[in-house]
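[scheduler] slot 2 assigned
[scheduler] job type: sequence-to-structure, two independent chains
[scheduler] chain ordering preserved from manifest
[runner] begin chain α
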Amino acid sequence: MLEQARRFMQLMAVGDFAAQWGLLAPQAQQQWPSAQARTAMLEAKFGDAPIASFTVGTPTPGAAWTSRENLVTVSGVWQVPVDVTFREPAAIRPQAAVAAYQQLSLALTPPLGREKPQVVGEGPASLDAPIILPPQVLATTTRVPILMYHRVAPYPNRAAYRTIYDWELDYGLTVDPTEFQGQVQYLAQNGYVAISLTRLADHLLYGLPLPTKSVVFTFDDGRMSPYIYAVPVLRKYGFTATFFIPAGLVGWEPTKLPLRYLTQAQIGQLAQTGFWIEDHTLKDNVPLWSVGGAELQQLALDTRTTLESMAHQPIQWIAYSGRWPYPSAATAGPAEQQLFQALAGMGYVGGVVDASIDSTTEMSQQLWQLPRVRVGPNEPLATFVANLG
């Protein structure tokens, strides 16, 4: 087991990514468009971030590995911790990636007879490994709808709310489970493939080809309803998703509203079974572009650290609180540009926007201003399909 893990990491350290392909299990190979595409991406990613050394830890048997792209699970694997040291750690951006690459692990199948273990979880070589920003980004144009959901549940009962405002607010954030089932079923039957934001970044930053019909699922606010109603549907079709969690609302059950928020245990379970946990500030009630200094650290950096301790995953993406201050997601002023720089220093690589202009007509020129398609209540399937672009 250790021999195979060391061999895999030795090849990575010298940049021989092509030779790694033969060590991969079929489930790992199926994550990639091709062996050549994998090699090209990893050469682009680590060409400016060369590895100086690595260590391999003690293998642990009986684990399970789940793909964070198609939710395929392989049980009974051996988990092998790996620690990567970069040749020039001070040049790595974001700096938080340096520590993240010291806390990854490989997953290997157990040896069967004379067959050697195979690598299913590629750790630092995975297409889902933490993003390392290249010194320069080539101009790339792609079209990927990023779907934005909040509450997936039966429509709220007016009698359960103290005020019409509270009820209308929740109603406007709701997609009925039957509607959601129809939307996901349409995507699956028409050749769409759900990808993560990091997989999208692999394409934009390193040139890894995307599936022809790619789509990203995102869920804001950290409510429990998508966990109950949306996650089983996504699992049925092998669709991954990103959950943007307000760290300060984890486990909260307000006494005056019929709301429940994801618990720490549920967040951990989502992360372990192939879903992505990312940041949605502290309580999703303060626009980040209006604050700075210690308050921004409390609303962002501290929340990233908290969520990482719950999900045991690096947190690199953020969903800004509230509506974007401009009609278009492509517009940003001095306050937003300053925010982007501050967030980059905290370890984030990009953010998703809730803008007023229809996202099907929007384009972003950087990862900090990714527009999304808001999926609304009682939305006809034809409208949903049209909004895919």
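[runner] end chain α
[runner] begin chain β
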Amino acid sequence: MKFYNLLIKYRLWIGVLLLVMAAVANVVFSFWPSLPLYIIAVILIGGHFFFGPLRLIQEYMESGDMEGAEKIINSIKYPQLLYKPIRSVYFTLKGNLAMMKQDFDGAEKMMKKGLDLGMPMKEAEGASLLQMGMLSMQKNDLKQAEGYIRQALRKGLPDKENQAAAYLQMCSLMMNKREFRAAKDFFRKTKALKPTTPQIVDQIKQIEKYISRIPG
């Protein structure tokens, strides 16, 4: 795995070096002995621009090194050359990083680009729509937030924590609209999932203090 990550990290320069070696072999010997070097060089250089180094980001994200992840993202100079599903992931990750910096306008712009390109999996699309809903709530655009979160639930979400977050946001939105029966229904769905994310658990405790006293 480490070897593969190193290859991804340096494949452009390895490809360039092999291309130079192929050209020298072509001049000194002939074309045919240099052909394997040409092929490998083209594969490595093409892979750098077509697939990018996004695989390297996983290690940084898992360790919580957002600065390292951002460096990898910023190293991609020509995102328009990325394979379409990978380009979609690239913009989504850019949006996530912008959201962590509380750059909500920048995050929305990047995540919309990712959604417009189409996500590789429906669950990934659902998660992106949920994040778009969260962004809309931060901007106090509650109507758009509801639309995004309903779309996220229809598309499907990758795990119970994301589902619980979506139901909890819908509960909050319904209470804001004074649709208390719907709010209680979404709250029951949230609790039924038994989420463990501390932030969600804390929100459930806060809402539980007064939701039983509201009509509906």
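[runner] end chain β
[qc] chain β: The chain has a mean pLDDT of 91.
[scheduler] slot 2 released
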